[in-house]
């Protein structure tokens, strides 16, 4: 066990291992105890951390969630919005507590300058090394799919903007390449604390975008709302909407990485309360106005339904800025996984440049292969995002909290840094399901069990519905094939307004043939 010293101010310092990944970590940013809580000299405040969470979630959700509201129906959609906000808020809290438990029980291993894969470490300590590997795979797939969706969404918005204002005939697939090239420099930054300013800017662009969407939908309300229709009930629509909800609320894969960079990691609960309050304030008015004004004439994005041109394209670019800046967060866990696999040093160098460039090129290849983001968004939301955002946090929190309780009951039990059968130190008895039933807090056990079952059933149904929808959807060929086929139009070629009404032919500006 580490020794502790007290300085003249009464602050208890904990000396740490002198090396981690070849980098000296005993400098000014070492952890210390104050008032019984771990903290360090510098790092993200809980307010900035909350804005990070908002930045990682809000962009794609704002444009896609109104469509999910239409598929659910207004009443069910509003109820589900409240349920999802409370559910993902609780699982974010549980995940934050998991990281705090790791830092308390294994301080020499998890109070270092930089831990590359905090979420897989949580899974490994809860259920063993195999779970560590499984969580790594889920995080990688989740963040990779999210990166592809955001890259496609950003490129589509830029494509529509150029076509609307400049009549520029630049192919959508070319814009994907340009956006990726411009994004490369910021993906080379090490961790969230290196680019917190960009995320704060992203949050404010989203605030302005939400205001403009509500204003634009209000201007369209008089002519569009009387012609609004809602789709007939279909259970598959519910499950597709569930996948969209999960995508828009489930950014948990990156939460431990952000919490790891906090000055006071134990204040992550404050960050989640702030974040999901702001997200609810963003999502709710946009979803309500989208449903009441446009109904089932909405496409994958509400932006194209706004009929005031300057509002539509201003929102377009604000959301684009948000998505591009958010990609700096989304790419970070992917890059850190790749660097861990290839044993890349922590300091900046050519090896980091090569690995992160390769990661970005892989995302670009998938984006060029699947140039429509709607079905992919639903599938990612229903599959790995459900695991990382609902199921894993609850299961890991139960095992880790009960494991800590057992360890505290037997204070003389020697500790080890090696994984045992389910992540407990080898000298301790592994946590069993019987232990969880006997020792877990009753309310925690009920909530975690309910959320896990909901995630398993809902996630499986949403994934199946998304795959079924993709199989029936209109096939859009990959960019590298459509470039050689003159008869096939450019993917996402549009730039015009998605008019309202049952036939999508109602416009505030007269002749729908010219405007819609």
Automatic annotation (TrEMBL):
<dbReference type="GO" id="GO:0016020">
    <property type="term" value="C:membrane"/>
</dbReference>
<feature type="transmembrane region" description="Helical">
    <location>
        <begin position="72"/>
        <end position="95"/>
    </location>
</feature>
<feature type="transmembrane region" description="Helical">
    <location>
        <begin position="44"/>
        <end position="66"/>
    </location>
</feature>
<feature type="transmembrane region" description="Helical">
    <location>
        <begin position="443"/>
        <end position="467"/>
    </location>
</feature>
<feature type="transmembrane region" description="Helical">
    <location>
        <begin position="165"/>
        <end position="188"/>
    </location>
</feature>
<feature type="transmembrane region" description="Helical">
    <location>
        <begin position="379"/>
        <end position="400"/>
    </location>
</feature>
<keyword id="KW-0812">Transmembrane</keyword>
<feature type="transmembrane region" description="Helical">
    <location>
        <begin position="195"/>
        <end position="215"/>
    </location>
</feature>
<keyword id="KW-0813">Transport</keyword>
<feature type="transmembrane region" description="Helical">
    <location>
        <begin position="353"/>
        <end position="373"/>
    </location>
</feature>
<dbReference type="Pfam" id="PF01490">
    <property type="entry name" value="Aa_trans"/>
</dbReference>
<feature type="domain" description="Amino acid transporter transmembrane">
    <location>
        <begin position="43"/>
        <end position="414"/>
    </location>
</feature>
<feature type="transmembrane region" description="Helical">
    <location>
        <begin position="273"/>
        <end position="294"/>
    </location>
</feature>
<feature type="transmembrane region" description="Helical">
    <location>
        <begin position="235"/>
        <end position="252"/>
    </location>
</feature>
<protein>
    <submittedName>
        <fullName>Transmembrane amino acid transporter protein domain-containing protein</fullName>
    </submittedName>
</protein>
<keyword id="KW-0472">Membrane</keyword>
<dbReference type="InterPro" id="IPR013057">
    <property type="entry name" value="AA_transpt_TM"/>
</dbReference>
<feature type="transmembrane region" description="Helical">
    <location>
        <begin position="133"/>
        <end position="153"/>
    </location>
</feature>
<keyword id="KW-1133">Transmembrane helix</keyword>
<feature type="transmembrane region" description="Helical">
    <location>
        <begin position="314"/>
        <end position="332"/>
    </location>
</feature>
């Amino acid at each position: 066990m580490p020794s502790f010293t007290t300085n003249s101010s009464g602050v208890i310092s904990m000396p740490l291992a002198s090396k981690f990944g070849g980098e000296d970590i005993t400098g000014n940013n070492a952890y210390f105890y104050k008032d019984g809580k771990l903290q360090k000299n510098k790092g993200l405040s809980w307010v900035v951390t909350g804005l990070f969470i908002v930045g990682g979630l809000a962009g794609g959700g704002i444009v896609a969630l109104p469509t999910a509201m239409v598929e659910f129906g207004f009443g069910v959609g509003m109820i589900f919005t409240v349920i999802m906000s409370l559910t993902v808020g609780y699982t974010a809290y549980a995940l934050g507590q998991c990281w705090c438990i790791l830092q308390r029980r294994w301080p020499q291993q998890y109070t270092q300058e930089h831990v590359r894969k905090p979420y897989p470490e949580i899974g490994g300590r809860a259920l063993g090394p195999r779970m560590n590997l499984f969580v790594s795979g889920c995080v990688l797939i989740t963040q990779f799919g999210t990166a592809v969706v955001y890259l496609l969404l950003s490129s589509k918005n830029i494509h529509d903007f150029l076509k609307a204002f400049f009549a520029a005939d630049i192919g959508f697939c070319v814009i994907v390449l340009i956006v990726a090239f411009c994004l490369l420099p910021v993906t080379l930054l090490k961790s969230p604390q290196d680019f917190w300013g960009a995320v704060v800017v992203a949050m404010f662009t989203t605030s302005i975008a939400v205001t403009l969407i509500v204003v634009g939908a209000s201007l369209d309300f008089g002519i569009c709302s009387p012609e609004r229709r809602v789709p007939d009930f279909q259970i598959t629509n519910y499950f597709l909407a569930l996948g969209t909800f999960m995508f828009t609320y489930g950014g948990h894969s990156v939460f431990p990485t952000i919490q790891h960079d906090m000055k006071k990691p134990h204040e992550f609960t404050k960050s989640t309360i702030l974040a999901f309050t702001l997200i609810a304030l963003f999502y709710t008015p946009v979803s309500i106005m989208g449903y009441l004004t446009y109904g089932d004439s909405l496409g994958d994005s509400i932006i194209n339904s706004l009929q005031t041109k300057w509002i539509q394209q201003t929102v377009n670019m604000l959301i684009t800025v948000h998505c591009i800046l958010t990609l700096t967060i989304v790419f970070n866990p992917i890059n850190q996984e790749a660097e861990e696999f290839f044993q890349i040093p922590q300091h900046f160098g050519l090896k980091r440049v090569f690995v992160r460039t390769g990661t970005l090129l892989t995302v670009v290849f998938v984006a060029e292969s699947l140039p429509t983001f709607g079905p992919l968004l639903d599938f990612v939301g229903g599959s790995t995002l459900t695991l990382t955002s609902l199921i894993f946090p609850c299961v890991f929190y139960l095992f880790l909290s009960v494991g800590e309780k057992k360890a505290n009951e037997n204070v003389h039990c020697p500790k080890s840094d090696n994984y045992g059968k389910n992540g407990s130190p080898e000298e301790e008895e592994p946590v069993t399901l019987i232990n969880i039933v006997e020792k877990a807090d009753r309310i925690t056990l009920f909530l975690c069990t309910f959320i896990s079952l909901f995630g398993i059933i809902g996630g499986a149904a949403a994934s199946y519905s998304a795959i079924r929808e993709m199989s029936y959807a209109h096939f859009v060929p990959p960019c590298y094939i459509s470039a050689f086929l003159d008869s096939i139009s450019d993917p996402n070629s549009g730039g015009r307004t998605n008019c309202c009404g049952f036939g999508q032919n109602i416009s505030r500006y007269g002749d729908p043939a010219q405007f819609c």
